[in-house]
Design a protein that fits this description.
Rossmann fold, alpha/beta, three-stranded mixed β-sheet
Length: 278
């Protein structure tokens, strides 16, 4: 996994980190958004508390002067002692932080204790939509109100404004809004989508879900992805390309067109672990 992260994804999105003022590196993008957002917010910390889920080798350590980092992974990269072993889906959210020093693992984290949670190519490794919902919900519970969940997801070279991946990004915006995570950042970099969702209060969430902007997003999702992806079928809003590949044999599905699956198989080429020996 370390080889995949550093040799493939960071290799594609790191060099150069800036080109004509356009940030290309996923890490630099997150860091710059944090500088812009928290500099103008009411949050006053010497270091922002950052949780990196699926961290592998703790790439955010290069910004260690800015962040108090908790890096976790199901299988940390060899030699990375600063990455705690943890199954995020099994992680408890409670009133304290609990570690097992003997196994260098993390058992529990305190609710509302982080300014930032990062899912960098994390949701794509979860095979079930319900697991992705639970992960986003858990990130929300760990964030302070006003904190940000960053979701970085891989993308194809051939993805365009009307592509299926663009529509899935919109569906995720709707799904996370229901959880109380309002999207404030969206940028398409080379090979990936970069999104930032701020945790809003329950009252703000209720108001937002009744707003014309949210209702318009719902209408767009239901129109472009079809009746099988709706607010009433909540879990359908957390779909990814792997789901589409599994469902490709269902010819009656309105979520998948023959064009998106059969004519353009290259749409799936950039997914982690696809035809790649790591």
């Amino acid at each position: 996994m370390h080889k995949l992260a550093t040799g493939v994804w960071d290799g594609r999105n790191n060099a150069p980190s800036c080109a004509g003022n356009k940030i290309r590196c996923r890490l630099d993008w997150v860091h710059q958004k944090n500088l812009d957002y928290f500099r103008n917010s009411k949050v006053q910390n010497d270091k922002l508390k950052l949780l990196d889920v699926g961290s592998c080798y703790n790439p955010f350590r290069k910004f260690g002067d800015c962040y108090d980092i908790t890096a976790i992974d199901l299988c940390p990269a060899r030699g990375c002692e600063d990455v705690l072993k943890c199954d995020f889906l099994q992680l408890k959210v409670g009133d304290r932080r609990v570690e097992n020093e003997e196994s260098n693992s993390l058992i529990e984290l305190k609710e509302s204790s982080f300014d930032i949670v990062v899912f960098s190519f994390f949701l794509e490794y979860l095979p079930d939509r319900k697991q992705r919902i639970e992960s986003c919900r858990k990130a929300r519970d760990l964030l302070k109100t006003g904190g940000i969940l960053y979701i970085l997801r891989p993308d194809s070279n051939h993805d365009g404004p009307g592509s299926i991946n663009t529509k899935l990004v919109k569906a995720l915006k709707v799904g996370n809004a229901v959880l109380g995570l309002k999207r404030i950042f969206l940028e398409k970099l080379e090979h990936l989508w970069c999104m930032g969702f701020v945790k809003i209060s329950p009252d703000e969430t209720s108001a937002y879900l009744e707003s014309p902007r949210f209702l318009k997003d719902v209408a767009v999702v239901e129109k472009t992805l079809g009746k099988d992806v709706t607010l009433q079928k909540f879990e359908t809003l957390f779909g990814i390309h792997q789901d589409l590949r599994r469902e490709a044999g269902l010819e009656s599905s309105e979520v998948i067109s023959s064009k998106s699956v059969e004519v353009q198989p290259e749409l799936f080429n950039e997914l982690p672990l696809l035809s790649m020996d790591v």
